[in-house]
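Table S2 (text version). Query chain:
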Amino acid sequence: MNRLTKHRLGLSLPVATGLALLVTAGATPTAAQQSADFLLGAPRVALTIKAGFAQPRAGSGGDTESLWDFTREQLTVDTRDLGGTTIAGELAIRAAERLDVTLSFGYTLSATRSEFRDWVDMDDLPIEQTTEFVTFPLTVGVKAYLRDRGRSLGRFAYIPRTWNPYVGVAGGAVWYRFEQYGDFVDFQTLDIFDARLLSTGAGPTVHFLGGVEMSISNHVMLTGEGRYALASGRISGRDFVGFPDLDLAGFQVTVGFSFRY
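Corresponding structure-token output:
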């Protein structure tokens, strides 16, 4: 290495060291802010995506036989067989420290394979079919937290609570589709025929809910919720004539993630 190169290197080392110190000093506040366990103000909006299991009540019609009663009596379908997968989403807007206003939607689908309990075909084989049940609720509600969701430090810093339970109520509308397809028995002629039987409709619904939120990071929470819905809808079309309104009530359990801002 020649003398000129040594001279330049000697000048470069102090300059490089100084620049490194300046960069480090300038980056420290930003890094500290990114790693700090507080938010710049209380979150105002939260978006939740969740999935889980839903179990319809499939209630009896009392003195009048319901479509659920007929299905359980004629086919190898029990109420517990009608449970299915549910996915849901929720937009929550902060109204107060312990209160949110929510807009929620959900989609539940169950598909149950079955056969007639007391009938077989000419070859002594089961007469098989599938029952599909779909619900799609859309509700507006309120969600009340049992504790403050966090605490403020000064004018801007906000420290969220690690976990917090909540309860709520919501109301709106639910759309449904009840469909059976496969082979069926004509009880008048005893013929076996292939068919796709369908009823769709809608009705008002009320949801009662409770759950808990656990912070994973400043902006992400793990959410677990149980929800019970009350609803019924009219039977439509010509495939299921003479039945009373279809019971759409049921219970669901979901787990998901909530993103707050």
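Notes on Table S2: The chain is about 15% helix and 60% strand. The two ends are 58 Å apart (CA to CA).
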